[in-house]
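thought: fold this chain, then report.
action: predict
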Amino acid sequence: MTQTMTNLRPYNAALLVPTGIGCAIGGYAGDALPVARVLAQAVDQLVTHPNVLNGAQLYWPMENALYVEGYGLDQFAAGNWALEHVHRNRIGVVFDAGIEPELRLRHLQVMNGARATLGLKLTDYIVTDQALGVTLKTAGSGSSWGTITHPDSLLRAAEKLINQAEATAIAVIARFPDEDSEALQQYRQGQGVDGLAGAEAVISHLVVRQFQIPCAHAPALMPLPLDPSVAPRSAAEEIGYTFLPCVLAGLSRAPQYRLITGHQQLNANVLTTEQINAVVTPASACGGSALLSWAEAGAHIIAVEDNQTALDVPPEPLGIKVTRVSSYLEAVGVIVSDRAGIDSTILRPHIAPLRPLS
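observation:
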């Protein structure tokens, strides 16, 4: 009897698409989600981060895709935290006090819609005691970053939701500056860097680092004027008043973080970094903490060349051994070959001869 793939040992992968660096695929409005959907079909579990799975009003439920915030992903890859599957999270929502009443109401309607239509469990919400004061910055490389003036106000609000409302995941809605810049126009045309992404990462990192629970962010912005020339990769952000629906859907089943101490026994419902077989990343963005941890641990790193970024950090100068591929389609083929125990280089017309060691 032929043994099927599902009877072999589990094969898990991570999909990294760093935020705010202008990734040609995944640098816009959830446009790496199709990549995640395909990869999820080829592996048992796929670990990735919110900006891969978030498409504003659009999202796609995948039972075997783990929605892991960037700081949590770094801790997981380093072996400090494990990921524990959950049946359901209680989502608490933090509103920035700087959000206008009408814009807040739009988000409240999304929250009630998520309860009534998707059956999600939300706690009562909280408004920060000060406006968070988000500012947006651009690095010399062209990547985006940002700051918040009152991080203490954000942490106080999150703590109240956790302690008083028993929230097990936090969604943050911060008022971001409205822009009408050349960079924004380029982004809408599918050519620039997401100017919001770097600041969004700062916000979610703060909460996850402080409280070790899932967190994701949805920026509050006034709707932009209608533009018939918006690129398909940016279009998901044009179809509604908020970016909150995908965040609530993702957080509803986001894994909980479990601190790893000593040689403790972890149950079968927990995923650890040693169980990650392959990591897929843009070839020019290989300097991130999570990737470096997995490379050191010996995971199979697959570097995708056509997902170009604003960075120039290839793997070779860092001493990272990778399999270079031209596209995500080729990356999927490498993973399927790897899972089957087949050397993917044998699938090419020319096979290099074996040589004696010197």
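thought: worth noting. The radius of gyration is 21 Å.
final: tokens above.
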